[in-house]
Specification:
- The protein is built from twelve helices and ten strands.
- The chain is of the alpha+beta class and 416 residues long.
- It has a four-stranded mixed β-sheet with strand order 1-4-5-8. The chain has a four-stranded antiparallel β-sheet with strand order 2-3-7-6, with no helix packed on it. A two-stranded antiparallel sheet has the order 9-10.
- Strand 2 and strand 3 form a beta hairpin.
- Helix 5 packs antiparallel against helix 9.
Length: 416
């Protein structure tokens, strides 16, 4: 059984019951049942999955290409998503969240990503930030920040990476020196999704000595003197969300904005990233699902040498491999999500496996191959398949690079 929050969410979504089940551009229900993303889900999960698919089809997919090409941050559409409970999917209900499980959240992000992978990835990062405040903040902080994050009246960004500190999060240099009832922040963060547009920045900074035990987590609000932003980065994909450096120059933040205790920042960051890895893997899954269906449909209508491409046995085998990798990725992601929800000892390794396997398989063996099956058409921006490929590539890098995922997995395997 799901938590009571999921029942509340289903009631809030009930008005959309009559909408289409799947993205119009992918025709989900026409796909063979072997890749049906609702397999194994209970009835409540299927209902909010359907709503997420419907929202992706009607509010996201028709605008995906425009957001990408014009680099638009779709604020109003995301706020519509928040009205359905997708602004705080796994945040507790007393502060406006939907109170769903990690598995439920994966189901939602996968479905939304079929409509726009880039936008969904930002929504997942926003959700991660809201959860960190909800889970580690005190009651005053939870009630101050979370309600507006869950409605997406305010947007959140996660600030961990620095120009000289990527995979080695414990070497963060951004400092926060306490002066009375304030911290004075100095330093900069790099590659921050939502940078400059978000209202809330969940910042990992150094309040103590070197190493992970010297890190703390502080919320910095937009408009704080000393907070500024770098230029908007030009990216291969993820163009519906801005990426900028976040800069702190004698930025004074109330001590009351520290989440958790001093020295707890690294723990908060890593626990947030465990869920973030499930989320971004789920976004890859959505892109891959859409790509498989687009490839299947193209093979059935495109003719070469007097016959549909679907008659070509090599392409049949390739499509079978893509479908198999898609389902294998989905099962691994959902297994890891359950382990994380249950706080099992193998959760970190499974989250790392899910992120590693799904982001690599979905990009290289599904999205990229779907583009190849489209031939020259696949390289045109008139065809959605190229955008799914571009938007999913970066997932192998962020939330901990896949090289780091291999370290975490092997460490778990080799421990006594």
């Amino acid at each position: 059984m799901l938590r009571c929050g999921s029942q509340r969410l289903v009631k809030r979504l009930g008005c959309l019951h009559g909408l289409l089940w799947a993205p119009a551009q992918t025709g989900h229900r026409s796909v063979a049942f072997c890749i049906d993303p609702s397999m194994g889900l209970n009835e409540e999960q299927k209902r909010f999955q359907k709503v997420a698919f419907d929202f992706a089809a009607q509010e996201m997919a028709p605008h995906m290409a425009e957001w990408d090409q014009k680099e638009l941050f779709p604020v109003e559409v995301m706020r519509k998503a928040a009205q359905l409970g997708f602004g705080g999917v796994y945040v507790r209900t007393d502060v406006g969240g939907s109170g769903l499980s990690r598995l439920d959240s994966s189901v939602v992000f996968e479905a939304l990503a079929t409509g726009c992978t880039s936008t969904t990835a930002y929504i997942s990062i926003h959700n991660m930030c809201a959860w960190m405040i909800d889970n580690f903040g005190n009651e005053e902080q939870r009630h101050k920040f979370c309600p507006q994050l869950c409605t997406m009246e305010k947007f959140a960004s996660y600030c961990l990476t620095e120009p000289e500190s990527g995979s080695d999060a414990a070497s963060i240099l951004t400092s926060a020196k306490r002066q009375g009832d304030q911290y004075i922040l100095n330093g900069s963060k790099a590659f921050i999704s939502g940078g400059g547009e978000s209202d809330i920045y969940v910042v990992m900074c150094r309040t103590g000595g070197s190493g992970p035990k010297g890190l703390s987590c502080i919320v910095v609000e937009k408009g704080t003197p000393g907070l500024s932003f770098g230029k908007k980065e030009k990216k291969v994909g993820w163009n519906s969300q801005p990426t900028r450096a976040v800069i702190f120059e004698d930025c004074a933040v109330p001590v009351a904005n520290r989440i958790g205790s001093e020295g707890q920042g690294f723990l908060i960051a890593m626990k947030g990233l465990n869920g973030g890895r499930i989320n971004v893997a789920s976004c890859s899954l959505g892109a891959a699902h859409a790509s498989v269906v687009l490839a299947r449909n193209h093979l059935k209508v495109r003719k070469q040498f007097g016959a549909p491409l679907a008659n070509n046995q090599y392409l049949q085998f390739q499509l079978a491999d893509m479908a198999t990798r898609l389902v294998a990725s989905r099962i691994l992601i959902r297994t890891a999500a359950v382990a994380l929800q249950e706080e099992r000892e193998d959760a970190v390794a499974l989250c790392s496996m899910a992120k590693l396997f799904a982001t690599e398989e979905c990009f290289a063996q599904i999205c990229n191959w779907a583009l190849q099956m489209h031939g020259g058409y696949g390289y045109l921006k008139d065809y959605a398949v190229q955008q799914y490929m571009r938007d999913s590539r970066v997932h192998q890098i962020l939330e901990g690079s896949n090289e780091v995922m291999r370290i975490l997995i092997s460490r778990n395997m080799l421990q006594d």
